[in-house]
Amino acid sequence: MSSAATDDEVLLAAAVEGGDAGVGHGAELAAFAEASWRRDETLAVARKALRSGVGDDGVIEAALTVAIFRSLNLAADASGIPLDESFAGHTRGFAGALGIDQFSTAKNSPDFSRA
Predict the structure, then answer these.
(1) Cα–Cα distance between 74 and 78 in angstroms, integer?
(2) Could you tell me if 36 and 66 are in contact, meaning their C-beta atoms sit under 8 angstroms apart?
(3) Distance, first Cα to last Cα, the chain
(4) Fewer CB within 10 Å, N side or C side of the chain?
(5) What per-residue confidence (pLDDT) applies to 112?
(6) Is 13 exposed, middle or buried (0-12, 13-18, 19+ CB in 10 A)?
């Protein structure tokens, strides 16, 4: 559910600084998502920590969310779908403020990551 729909404040800086971002079990969710992308030995540890907080159903939902996000990004990147300008305009500011444009993967989106 969207933080806008629930009127919750989400701390975007947690994306680079760590922490729970103001989301229930946010630190565990972030660790699980990152480990899922890496697919290394940290995945079992992250899955166990997440399961202790959200249960089996929560782990399944998190795994599905990670998988869908990854597949949509891969499909968009592979097909060359351009980023919608209204979305890009909205996110350029916080991408720069968080330093996301300093990540090595920023080279994949040169027009987006530079404000």
Answers:
(1) 6
(2) yes
(3) 29
(4) N
(5) 58
(6) middle
Amino acid occupying residue 56: D
The helix/strand/coil state of 39 is coil
Spell out the alpha helix ranges (H) of 20-84. Answer: 26-38, 42-79
From the CA atom positions of the chain, what is the Rg in Å? 15
Distance CA 85, CA 115 (A): 12
Match 């975007």 to its residue by tokens: 12
Matching residue, tokens 């209204």: 86
Which tokens in the block code for residue 101?
Answer: 């444009």
The pair of structure tokens assigned to 111 is 């027009």
47-99: pLDDT as tens digits: 999 999 999 999 999 999 999 988 988 888 788 887 778 777 777 777 777 77
